[in-house]
Amino acid sequence: MNEQTTRNPSVVVIGAGMTGILLGIKLREAGITDVTILEKADKVGGTWRENTYPGVACDIPAHMYTYAFEGNPEWGHRFAHGDEIQAYFEKISRKYGVTGQVRFNEAVEACHYRDGRWYLTTSQGNHLEADFVIAATGILHHPAYPDIKGLEDFQGAMFHTARWDHSVDIQGKRVGIIGTGSTAAQVISEIATSAGELTIFQRTPQWILSVPDKHYTESEKARLRGNQPLMDKLRERYAWLIRNTFTEAVSSGGWRHKLLSWRVKRHLRKSVRDPALRARLTPDYKVGCKRLIVSSTFYEAVQRPNVHLETNGIDHLEAGGVVTRDGKLHELDVLILATGFHPFNFMRPMELTGRDGLSIDQAWAHKVQAYRSVCLPGFPNFFLMLGPNSPVGNYSVIAMSEVQGNYVLKLIDRWRRGLLPSVEASAEAMRRYNAYLKQGMGSTAWVGGCQSWYLDADGDPALWPYSWKQWVQEMAEPELADFVRAEPGEPNRALPDREAA
Ligand code: NAP
User: Fold this and answer.
1) Residues contacting residue 155 through CB under 8 Å, at least 6 positions apart
2) Rounded Cα distance, 24 and 11, in Å
């Protein structure tokens, strides 16, 4: 063992959601003891802490939506409810001693790289130094508010789904909801029975896959308790199913895509008998182009007598409600904005500068990009978890974080062993990686004629266009040739240039 083997880096992890908790556990297992986790809120959980809207659930089967090392025999439903998932993360975080490691109510405001170290400033006015920074800040956490004329004029209650106002009682009220994405589909199914009148303002129809929910009985739970191998089997079975029926279908097309398309179209045909309503619910783009919605209850909710599908388009808002382009005023007491998120913010608005004062806004001015989704040229020893082109698309983000976490740990290990002076992907590797991604995009459903949050400013889907298996294989070992060897202070060969974008 040489001297370098014993290098014990200091690591700051930003965020204590699903990924931050995982990193807290895995860094410790790797023998890295100087770890600080900073969390802006007062508890762990990330997206599951923030999203508390009625009907919030995970449309990935619960037994697949767990860490590989710790299944959860207590799931109550095939599609776990938000509060169950939050409870799972809190439990794991406590059990593995992560909760005690987290500094809560402390957001990172600035993060600068100088002379081989990272210098951070937090919202508490504290200053930290670290060898490595890992942003486990999530993807969909900045609510997108619609740019609609008169939004501020509305006098009723109005809130975004990710900021649900639980003091507002919707029982018997005239409720409007803007949006028909995965979130809206869950909210609509849940509140259709309690709202007096519910108007859905649909700009674009969505394809919907019906997979029935299932309630797990006490005896089913008992069978799983203490039986991790059985839970592993269940997780792998669901993962296999999702990969084969969905993930591969949207990325490589072929017969899988045909089968998926047939299933969703049949679901629409069988569920909505009125041809005029069915026509308004029928998308004109490829199945899977937008993230497929998984719901066995949405069409039923839309056809309730107190639910109205409005497709005329919104002209503006005024004090009493929403005015559609046909001039009709839809009077409302409550307006719910299920209008999604800004997916390309990632760790921003945190101030982040890498080598030679390169800011993240400069680095991403031409394209939001990351080598292998986690490494940013120009930002040594900085990792972005679930960064651009992470293979989302109805797959478990936990599985993705586990693969990326392992990759990051291997890179830190190379630094510890002195094989890399700093961990920084080269601009050339970034360029090659982008070209490789682009090559695969043509056969995916995401370029199938729709607008979606998957697409970046250039219209390129920020997803992984190949198979899950290929991604796992390629992430298994870092290719050291793709990382720069310059010591800090030497001429910067890693800065991304316009061509790399
Ligand atoms: P989203 O998929 O981006 O949907 C936003 C909706 O708002 C769309 O229907 C959009 O219409 C509409 N919209 C936005 N601005 C509008 C405007 N100015 N006027 C009219 N309509 C407007 O957002 P989301 O439903 O919150 O879902 C985001 C992602 O979160 C999902 O794709 C998924 O990855 C994740 N999610 C996951 C789960 C789960 O169960 N795992 C649940 C919820 C969310 P257009 O289609 O016309 O743009």
Assistant:
1) 319, 320
2) 10
Which residues in 244-262 are b (16+ Cβ under 10 Å) and which e? ebbbbbbbbbeebbeebbe
The residue whose CA has the least distance to atom 33 of ligand 1 is 182
Q: Which atom of ligand 1 is nearest to the CA of 59?
A: 40
* CATH class of domain segment(s) 151-215+220-337: alpha beta
Given pLDDT bands bounded at 50, 70 and 90, which one contains residue 487? low
Q: How far is the CA of 291 from the centre of ligand 1 (A)?
A: 9
**423, 483 Cβ separation under 8 angstroms:** yes
Q: Which residues line ligand 1 (CB under 6 A)?
A: 57-60, 140, 146-148, 178-184, 186, 201, 203-204, 291, 314, 338-341, 451, 453
* 6 vs 24: CA distance, rounded Å: 20
Task: Please tell me whether residue 433 adopts helix, strand or coil conformation.
Answer: helix
Q: Give CA separation, 485 vs 356, 382, 428, 441, 497, in Å.
A: 16, 15, 13, 31, 18
Whether residue 392 contacts residue 400, with contact meaning beta carbons closer than 8 Å, is answered with: yes
Name the architecture of domain 10-142+342-424.
3-Layer(bba) Sandwich (3.50)
- pLDDT tens for each residue of 163-206: 999 999 999 999 999 999 999 999 999 999 999 999 999 999 99
Q: How remote is the C-alpha of 68 from its chain's centroid?
A: 18
- Residue 91, phi then psi, degrees to nearest 5: -65, -45
φ, ψ of residue 109 in degrees (nearest 5): -100, -35
Per the listing, tokens 């095939």 go with: 78
If one residue of 53, 59, 183, 400 were mutated to test the ligand 1 pocket, choosing by the most ligand atoms within 8 A of its CB, it would be 183
User: Residue 339 Cα, ligand 1 centroid: separation in angstroms?
Assistant: 5
- Please confirm whether the linkage preceding 349 is cis (ω < 30° from 0): yes
Q: CA triplet 9, 391, 351: central angle to 5 degrees? A: 50
What would the pLDDT profile of 201-237 be if each residue is shown by its tens digit? Answer: 999 999 999 999 999 999 999 999 999 999 999 999 9
Sort 501 into a burial class: Cβ within 10 Å, 0-12 / 13-18 / 19+. middle
Longest Cα separation, the chain: 77
Residue pLDDT, tens place only, 100-134:
999 999 999 999 999 999 999 999 999 999 999 99
- Name beta bridge partners: 335: 158, 176
In the structure, what pLDDT confidence band is assigned to residue 448 with cuts at 50, 70 and 90? Answer: confident
pTM (2 decimals)? 0.95
Domain limits, CATH 3.50.50.60, in the chain: 10-142+342-424, 151-215+220-337
Answer left, alpha or beta for residue 222, where phi above 0 means left and psi between -120 and 50 means alpha: alpha
β-strands 293-294, 329-331: how paired?
unpaired
Full DSSP string of 437-450: HHHHHTTSGGGSS-
